Amino acid sequence: MRLDVIPVRVATPLFTPLAVLPRAVVESAQAGRGGSGSMAMARVSGEFSVGMAAQAAEDGSAGIGRMVLDKRYHGALEARGAGQMLATHGSVAGSAAYVALESVTGTLQGREGSFALVHHGLMTRGQPSLEIGVVPDSGAGGLAGLTGRMSIRVEGHRHFYDFDFSLPEA
User: Fold this and answer.
1) What's the Cα-to-Cα distance from 39 to each of 107, 148, 157, 165, rounded to whole Å?
2) pLDDT of residue 38
3) Dihedral (C-alpha) 26, 44, 150, 37: value to the nearest 10 degrees?
4) Structure pTM?
5) CB pairs under 8 A, 24+ apart, for 31-34?
6) What distance, in Å, lies between the first and last C-alpha atoms of the chain?
7) Separation in Å, CA 7 to CA 17, 89, 151, 154
8) Angstrom distance (rounded) from CA 149 to CA 59
9) How many CB atoms lie within 10 A of CB 61?
10) Residue-wise DSSP of the chain
């Protein structure tokens, strides 16, 4: 089932981002950099579940929240994501930021391997933005050479991903 991309807010205790596409990642994928062979863009969409567990603050960083992420992706991306997120808020209501690193292991359209995602979210006085991109050259196994970006949507209490990516032909 293909789902259209629609911007939606994703609520966390400290941040509410809006899904957007990172231009540098798009341009890199369209140019075919990062791997050999054909690099046509593809899109897969599906549902995912996410668990977040708050962690103790590090010494001297009381204003920074840290969480461990545990995700399960379903659909053309059948995988487990594990990572960590740091979040903080500004002194003005509606201003916040988060960053996260996520290691994803599983299959993408039947190709088994792993890759890493980097999340960068900002909210400036209620105006959110979110970029999630594949870490360059992080693809391993059948996902070597993977480039791309991901957006997320929440509909009710269900989470969905839209993953635009390129992979060299097997």
Assistant:
1) 18, 11, 35, 9
2) 53
3) -40
4) 0.76
5) 32/166, 33/147, 34/136, 34/137, 34/145, 34/146, 34/147, 34/166
6) 24
7) 10, 22, 9, 9
8) 34
9) 11
10) --------B---SS---BB---HHHHHHHHHTTTSSS----EEEEEEEEEEEEEEPPPTT-TT-EEEEEEEEE-SSEEEEEEEEEEEEE-SSTT-EEEEEEEEEEEEETTEEEEEEEEEEEEEETTEEEEEEEEPTT--EETTTT-EEEEEEEEETTEEEEEEEEE----
pLDDT < 50 regions, the chain: 1-36
User: b/e string for 23-38 if b means 16 or more Cβ within 10 A?
Assistant: eebbebbeebebbeee
Return d(Cα 65, Cα 41) in angstroms, integer: 35
Tokens of residue 62, six digits: 């009381």
Backbone φ, ψ for residue 55 (5° rounding): -115, 160
Q: How far is CA 72 from CA 33, 86, 90, 163, in A?
A: 29, 20, 31, 14
Q: Are 166 and 148 in contact (CB under 8 A)?
A: yes
**Residue among 96, 90, 104, 113 nearest 163 (CA):** 104
Render pLDDT for 95-126 as a digit per residue (tens, 0 to 9): 999 999 999 999 999 999 999 999 999 999 99
Amino acid letter, residue 90: G
